[in-house]
Specification:
Elements: H1 6-24, H2 37-48, H3 51-65, H4 79-93, H5 100-129, H6 131-134, H7 144-181, H8 185-209, H9 212-231, H10 237-256
Length: about 260
Amino acid sequence: MTLFDAHTITQVLAAALIGGIIGLDRTALGQFMISQPVVAGPLTGWLLGDVTAGLVIGGTLELIWVLDMPIGTFVPADSTVAAVAATAIAALGSTTPGQLPVIGFCLLLTVAMVPVTMFADHLMRQRNAQIPELAMTSSGRPTEASVTFWHFGGTVAFFLKAFLLCLALVPAGLVLVSGFLALPDAVHRAMSLFITFLPLLGAASVARKLSMNTLDRTLLIGFVIGAVSVQLFHVPELVAIMLAAGGGWMGMRFHGA
């Protein structure tokens, strides 16, 4: 079976187009938060026929990168491109929708995507820094037409950045996924276990970036109350969640006092 038949190529182009359009929301246009992985992933998965992959990948990446902000000279990873590309790879590379080993492997691929997206964002920042000079006319002053033209050009550049990144990353990922699928079943089972516990890493990452002086006691008390109420007293899960939340809140209030 040919890896890149006409249908797959069309789907790859569609994924790149999705990435380019959603990528505009990141900084260039709108900023309606559609570019957040928790939205971009499921939306891409829905459009490509695998909502499960989008939900898992988008939710996990959101937990890992939710507090990374492009402040000052810090250039964070492009979580939008990573979410769209990883979801597209999982949706197009899986033999069945929601294939957990493939989803886990695609999440691992986002680690390799990070330096590529950061380098592309760095180039984009350099380009944007030149806009004031580019908008100058022969008279030495910018005109309304020149400013409009170069700002519109910046929007197009942001679209092309995300579009071209997805256009390169998705086919490369599909090649790697085809090799992963040929590995023994033991590797696939290990990857399924990995994807099961990976959200815990995201939750730990969020907790670490927030004020752990407050969260450590809150999380510990909530966890103990939830575990004890379910394991020892067989309290229904919903009630246990409410008890854990209440206990964590009391622990935070006590700690603050």
